[in-house]
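Morning - adenosine-5'-diphosphate inputs below, output right after.
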Amino acid sequence: MSLLSVENLNKAFGNLVVTKGVSLVVAAGERHVIIGPNGAGKTTLLHQIGGQARPDSGRILLDGVDVTRCDPEIRARAGLARTFQKNTLFQRLSVFENVRLAVQARHGRVFDLFTPVRARADIDARTQATLERMGLGKAGPEILANLSYGDQRQVEVAAALACDPKMLLLDEPTSGLSPKETKEMIEVIKGLPTQMGLLVIEHDMEVVFSIADRLTVLYYGAVLASGAPREVAADPRVREVYLGAGAADAAH
Ligand SMILES: Nc1ncnc2c1ncn2[C@@H]1O[C@H](COP(=O)(O)OP(=O)(O)O)[C@@H](O)[C@H]1O
Ligand SMILES: [Mg+2]
């Protein structure tokens, strides 16, 4: 059974159809990458899987359970985690506090005077373990704003991993990163727990080919091609979309 199964998803904003009959599956342990031109509907697709947007029709199954109409919190508790295209961390808090907030959010609670000491210790321990798994064990006390952008994006992944998700969604984790930071992010992605399913939107083809088991191309909201990365990249329709876009850019 697939970990994530998207079945014939459709969504429009007014007259603009942004998701057109999209179906895809991600198995446990699979690294599935989505590419597509700007405005193809990649982020909107991730929003529907994460619960930040509602599809007009179609179904989303997580581990066989229909979560199409569930809130993001319910999906998170069912094992889904995600990051966003734009950094959503708290700049004035420390790395540790940022990841701890993610751990608390998944547990559906905030600290107050009545939080048992043991529960706090559990959450702190989980936070520290997550940071260490990401090689950020020593960065905990640092104020986020003092970190490089590349390190901040790694903290975002750490926050998403804080509750041992079964399925992780990443929206352009390398956008805005330097070549060196991009290489580090590739290593972070390669180091993710092997049984976790990963669905990642990525535009850097070097990253795509370093991590993808499976590649799906979205074009005007629809799946243009999906399969083994090299085969998809060699598909004449995919080449036309990318070479066509390149030619249009060059003309400007
Ligand atoms: N909330 C919204 N309301 C109206 N149009 C939107 C909204 N979100 C995205 N769009 C439009 O939907 C299309 C797909 O956007 P998006 O999913 O962000 O594409 P991508 O991530 O592939 O660049 C774009 O034309 C965008 O302008
Ligand atoms: Mg996007």
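Note: The longest strand covers residues 16-26.

O.
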